[in-house]
Sequence to fold (192 residues):
Amino acid sequence: MPGKFDSPAESRGKRICYSCGNSYPDIFRFCPRDSTDLAYLPPPIENLARDFSRSHKWVAFNFISALGLILAAWLIIDQLSIMPAGSAPGYGELTVRTTPPGARVYLDGSQVGVSPVRLSDVPTGFHRVRAVCPGYSDGNANVEILPSATQKLVWDLSPLPSRKANSRNKYLTELFTRQIAPPGETPGGTST
Fold:
């Protein structure tokens, strides 16, 4: 059985199998042991190492790039979470003015001030607003507060009719329709 070459002088006229390391005479085209092509010369190990390292460089570059993108996204989310509440996109403003001024203003049932009033940091969504002024009709509205926007309400509250005049007019109307004389007069219209 042929052995491995120890010197270049012995390798003349013989072929070496790169797979098993045995040497064979030139008449052999394939290794009788593992059928490896004896004419094939593998590339030097330096070329294989260089090709292998190139692919790893791309893998490392892609990994570092992905890691950088994840870090940037995390920093952006972190910065958004520490924004001041007044500038957060979930709040808006509400301004209420009434004629006459001085009406008590209620937001969702809680008194928030006296008109004219400007409310900041009102949560977005629908809210019930009411203005109450003694002697005037109430102002009521459902408003939608949008993020970073100002909603304005202007009410011209109408005066309520006086109770004394209203009850006196009602009494006189009843007397007139029944033709009942007011106290101190006779039904014919003459006074006593």
In short: The radius of gyration is 50 Å. The first strand starts at residue 14 and ends at 16.
